[in-house]
Amino acid sequence: MRNAYLMGAALVALLPIAAQAQPKSATGGVSKQVYQLHQKLITLDSHLDTPASLDLPDWSIDEEHGVHSDYTQVDLPRMKKGGLDGGFWAIYTGQGPLTVEGFRKARDFALLRGMSIRSMVAADPDNFTLALEAKDAAPIAAAGKRIVYMSIENAYPLGEDISLIKTFYDMGVRVSGFAHFAHNQFADSSTDPSKKPRYGGLSPLGKELLKEMNRLGIVPDASHSSDQVLDDLLALSTTPVLLTHSGCKAVYDHPRNIDDDHLKALAAKGGVIQMNAYGAYLRASKPNPERQKALMALYSQMREDAKVSPEARAAMLAKRQEIDRLYPDTDRPTFDDFMAHMLHALKVVGPDHVGIGLDWDGGGGVVGMEDVVDLPKITDALLKAGYSEADLQKIWSGNVLRVLAAAEAGKQK
What we know:
β5 (173-177), α8 (204-216) and β6 (219-221) form a beta-alpha-beta unit. 41% of the residues lie in helices and 10% in strands. It is globular, with a radius of gyration of 20 Å. It is α/β, with parallel strands linked by helices. The protein has 15 helices and nine strands. The strands form two sheets. Strands 1, 2, 3, 4, 5 and 6 form a six-stranded parallel β-sheet that branches. Strands 7-8-9 form a three-stranded parallel β-sheet, with helices on both faces. α11 runs antiparallel to α12.
């Protein structure tokens, strides 16, 4: 198995983004009135894979980049244009082998990725501030700075030493998931290639990890984990559970999405689903085998353990753009497909239990919402659907901050 967590920087080039750029409106494609309201709200995204960009060669978060040139979706100028105040910046580690060596490599990678996030904040204190508690968000936003909470996607780097979660907590992590695309030592994944459960939910070690997360005040994240893991979390967690980037099975029956019964159970325990914009989870698309084959060939050229040079990065981008030209993705999900999931979740559990986690720089983005500049469109669509400004504030940040505050209140001194 290739150690994808060692190639996260290069994987940015493989995001499913169309090659044809569309002109951007100064108000994000909405009216001036809606844009002003959107900018007034405190807006948080609960799953930013943007830390992968921080380690790219010659790439700066302070400079504006292009989704159709280097395929990245979040940077400071675009956050300002799109009115994104910040969010949960993920330490993502792909699933590797369940061995001592695999755990060691993953641990070292995750610690360095966490330090990349901390270094971003330290290098630009005028624009970024680390947030450690729910109450930190409002004053940071009021000061005109971007809010940086930290999260873990995939607990695999902890190995079999759950005490390591305290190290990440001390670094700033306040939300953690359990599994990713495959089963690991803590939990079953919703998308394991075997299509069979390993533990039927959390493993015994996973249950111990949950106890330690509750003790520290870390929010448990069930995205990517199986429905049975969500059942265990709802039954065992002493604080509410978050789905940092998920969708609705009732709209599209995909293992990464959750059904209405689980959605209601999540809400009944005070939890929140943060809606993602990862196209493959929104609806089925027509197969494009030539494009898939070309992308996989490009992926296979990337060497493990290799630091990407500026020249290699440029060559990779050129190859990706050539793939887009030769084999365009003509059946990508759209903004309306994303909104179908969001509006369904709102119908089932209401605005107190729905938020936003679009999976930027990790595969998120749809036609009509390609990067964070387009975020005002969500505010516009929710207003047109009849939701109030108070509802919007809950959806954009109030709900996820409430869950974080509950985790803080429940932690043991």
